[in-house]
Amino acid sequence: MLEAFSGSDVRAAEAPFLDAGQGDALMQRAAHALAGVVVGLLRESGRGTYGATVVVLAGSGNNGADALYAGERLARRGASVTAVILADRVHEESLRALERAGGTGIRVDDDAAPEDLAEHAAAADVVIDGILGIGADGGLRGRALRFVQAFTAAAGPRGTRSALVVACDLPSGIGVDDGRVTGTVLAADATVTFGAPKPGLLLGDGAAAAGELNVVDLGLSFSSRPSVRSLLDADVAALIRRPTTQDHKYSRGVLGVAAGSARYPGAAVLAVGAALATGIGMVRYLGPEAVAALVHQRSPEAVASTGPVSGARSQAWLVGPGAVDDDEQRQRAADAIGSGLPVVVDAEALTQLPERVGSHVILTPHAGELSWLLAARGLETERADIESEPARYALLAAEVTGATVLLKGFATTVAAPSGALFVQRDASPWLAAAGSGDTLSGIVGALAASLAEDDRAADRAGVAREDLWAVVAAAGALIHGRAGLRAAARGPVVVSDLPADIGPVIADLLEECRPAM
Ligand SMILES: NC(=O)C1=CN([C@@H]2O[C@H](COP(=O)(O)OP(=O)(O)OC[C@H]3O[C@@H](n4cnc5c(N)ncnc54)[C@H](O)[C@@H]3O)[C@@H](O)[C@H]2O)[C@@H](O)CC1
Ligand SMILES: [K+]
């Protein structure tokens, strides 16, 4: 699991080392790791370190010092290293170390025109961004801002430029703790972050600017809970409940699905198909006969009925997808939410939510639905506000409803009422299509049903019991995103084909977790 800690948490964790006079040792470990990543990238790109041109951008703080010491190490390996000093002050010792190793430092005055130096950087093999780290107060400004703008103009945007940009600790210009980019940012191809990821590397535009994330363990220990977490493959693999020889169809998990209506029958087909592909014992479908007939065409194993929730024994429920203008589906949604079982509440069923529920109720709104949900509780928010600060509003919604909230988007944000926050960025943009959310809710519903009676699930996931449903939702987002990536490899994603990609994704995940022979 990637666990991000705020800038102040990192400083607190670092304090005992500084008090013990080990600040320089930490810095050298950071520089060593940063240089190692640069060497690896140069090797991968077929360029090699010896003779490579490297430009170190250095600000006034320790972030600049890390970058300069990394530059020293690269110079000792035969790289031609130029440091561009973008502040009045610089960590002099690290600059001298670079110069002793054969590198050159160039100080940029506040009124200098940076174009020539920016062009030199654009032509380099690697640019190391040591302008701002966790001490950043606001975005890039002054000469650093002008330099980054001139560099971007000369080099072109990421993906087209020839110089690889490696961010030291974090890309300069992102909000350390919220990932917000209000001005200019130096988007990186890779980020080498020290001690722990910072929240801004997992959230919003900051995550997009970070490129490939490398986390360097400095042996820090944290007393606080992480601000944001992202599940990795192994976390999802550990969570998935594998069938044993003692299992039967009821013990593997039964998901009740009240989805679809005369107007939107397809949502039921998609949700049921995705749930079955995720691997459970049974799906009980509740809804109009005509919709059930369609569900059966695609998923003959689903057990269908037109009855109420009380007559359909299940371990979890999924309610809402496509269930519009249908009083019986509305009643089933309300009953499922009141059943005490884990329940995924999507789309139309969000209107059936009582004032307060528990974390076992997993809401899956998009930004528009979340805006409505908050407004219904007296909290007026524009959809655009939610889109620009998804973590903040998902947490707010979890707090006021008591539910687990999965906010859909390119990055999926999951908030637990305890304040725990998960972000998953596993999706393909090709997944932005009608019906995609129905498949996501089917996956989350199936995971919930298979884990509902599993007392060890939270331990396996490494979270507190109260946060289990948030992990389940985040795991669903990872599986859904991966299935989308698989599907997109064949061309534009057709959502009704997505269930066929879910099985192989789960097979891959479980393979990864299998002990080595
Ligand atoms: N905390 C840790 O455990 C470790 C931290 N290390 C490094 O130290 C960094 C933090 O160092 P610092 O605290 O010196 O912070 P920074 O290196 O981020 O720089 C802070 C300084 O930059 C200036 N500044 C702040 N905002 C600015 C802005 N918007 N525009 C221009 N200048 C601005 C201020 O003068 C401030 O003193 C980390 O990011 C990391 O790279 C590493 O050396 C290893 C260990
Ligand atoms: K930086």
Count of all domains: 2
> Major sheet, described briefly?
9 strands, mixed
Q: Which CATH class of the largest domain applies here?
A: Alpha Beta
* Residue fraction in strands: 5-15%
Tell the overall outline: elongated
How many helices? The count is: 18
CATH topology of the largest domain: UDP-N-acetylmuramoyl-L-alanine:D-glutamate ligase
Q: Radius of gyration from the CA trace?
A: 26 Å
Subunit structure: Homotetramer.
Keywords: ATP-binding, Isomerase, Lyase, Metal-binding, Multifunctional enzyme, NAD, NADP, Nucleotide-binding, Potassium
Protein name: Bifunctional NAD(P)H-hydrate repair enzyme
EC number: 4.2.1.136, 5.1.99.6
What would your notes on this structure say?
With 517 residues, this protein is an alpha/beta fold. It folds into two domains: 2-229, Rossmann fold; 234-513, 3-Layer(aba) Sandwich (UDP-N-acetylmuramoyl-L-alanine:D-glutamate ligase). The chain has helices at 7-19, 23-44, 62-76, 92-100, 115-122, 142-155, 204-210, 233-239, 266-278, 289-298, 327-337, 367-375, 383-388, 390-401, 436-451, 457-461, 468-488, 499-513, and strands spanning 2-4, 53-58, 80-85, 104-107, 126-130, 164-168, 190-194, 212-216, 228-230, 254-258, 282-286, 303-305, 316-319, 343-345, 361-363, 404-407, 412-415, 421-424. The strands form three sheets. Strands 12-11-10-13-14-15-16-17-18 form a nine-stranded mixed β-sheet, with helices on both faces. The protein has a seven-stranded parallel β-sheet with strand order 4-3-2-5-6-7-8, with helices on both faces. The protein has a two-stranded antiparallel sheet with strand order 1-9. Helix 3 (62-76) links the parallel strand 2 and strand 3. Helix 3 (62-76) runs parallel beside helix 4 and helix 8 (233-239) crosses helix 18 (499-513). The chain is elongated and about 80 Å long. The mean pLDDT is 96. Bound molecules: ligand NAX and potassium ion. Potassium ion binds next to strand 5 and strand 6.
